[in-house]
Amino acid sequence: MDIMAIIGAASAFSAAICIAIGGFASCVGEGYAAASGLSAMAQQPDEAGTISRTTFVCMAICETGAIYCFVVAMILIFANPFWNHVISLAAK
Amino acid sequence: MENYDAQIAFTLFGYGINWTIVSTWIVMAVLVLLAFFAGKNINTNKKPSRLQTAMEAIVLCMRNQVREMSNDEPLKYLPLVGTQFLFIATANILSILPWFKIPVSSLSTTAAMAFMVLMAIPFYGIKNAGVKGYLKKYTEPTILLLPMNVLSDFTSTLAMAIRLFGNMCSGVIIGSILMLLVPFILPLPMTILGLFSGLIQAYIFAVLTIIFVSSVSPVKKETKEEK
């Protein structure tokens, strides 16, 4: 296996691992946040507006990790610096 | 990748104008025209037009939300927060047009909006509590945490930019991939989901802006009461 094949395979595989672990973990965390928000809303329906707003913000902040993983995976797939470097070396 | 920054729409005076700028202009034009026609003939005598009533409902709703979240005079923050919310929401709603390239899915746009928030934090902080009260925020628990507090301003606004970009960009990419695989029916639910999550993201961006921008104002009241 030459160096280009190794770099290509490693990039694709690490993009998959990145989005898998990041997406899984942040989805579990968001699920906990949503569950706590819903149970709080069930206990105090009067405060539903405040609770749902806070829950949305907390979920967005939990989601940030998944979004970072998504951006890294997109960089690894579409704008891979290592791959571009190897391509430019091979073109010489 | 759907990179609208690299797609040139037309050239103007020798410069290539890309699709991000063009669609930003379209969103701006829609907002400006709506506001212009809604506010064209406002007077207290006759019945308000339907457009004016709709606009008033939106502005009133935003004002109430800002008042609840910042515990402060809403008109202070509304120009910044409301404009950002309306811009992102309008860009998302316009994305149901097939040829429309949503400007918020470009990192340049979201980075510019997050930079506005980064600049607004010291602006509103100094406006609320003066220079001394604003700088006191950074030494809040102890002076040892000063670098962390300064860093947290930058990281939180950077996270806002990346979050908005990632959400919008993922929606666009999922839509285009499904369009390649199954051009009928199947992209439709994903488009609806993208519309929903886009509006949620607009709301979250506005909420986070209010939280960061109004973070200094309680300090002023506390210090006044102590003195």
Outline the structure in words.
The complex is a heterodimer of chains A (92) and B (227). Helix content of chain A is 90%, strand content 0%. With 92 residues, chain A is mostly helical. Chain B has helices at residues 19-38, 50-70, 74-94, 107-138, 146-181, 187-213, 217-226; strands spanning 8-12, 15-18. In chain B, strands 1-2 form a two-stranded antiparallel sheet. Chain B is globular. Chain B starts with 7 loop residues before the first strand and ends with a helix. At the A-B interface, helix 2 of A face helix 5 and helix 6 of B.
What labels describe this entry?
heterodimer, A: 92 residues, mainly alpha, rod-shaped, B: 227 residues, 2 strands, 74% helix
N-to-C terminal Cα separation of chain B, in Å?
58 Å
Task: Estimate what percentage of residues of chain B fall within beta strands.
Answer: under 5%
SSE order of chain B, one letter for each helix or strand: EEHHHHHHH
Largest interface, counted by CB within 8 Å of the partner chain's CB: A-B, 15 and 19 residues
What is the overall pLDDT average of chain A? Answer: 88
Overall pLDDT score of chain B: 82
Taking all Cα atoms into account, the compactness measure Rg of chain B is: 21 Å
Secondary-structure-based class of chain B equals: mainly alpha
Query: Topology as H/E string of chain A?
Result: HHH
State the low-pLDDT regions of chain A, or none: none
Number of strands of chain A: 0
Report how far the terminal alpha carbons of chain A are from each other.
Answer: 21 Å
Main beta sheet of chain B, described? Answer: 2 strands, antiparallel
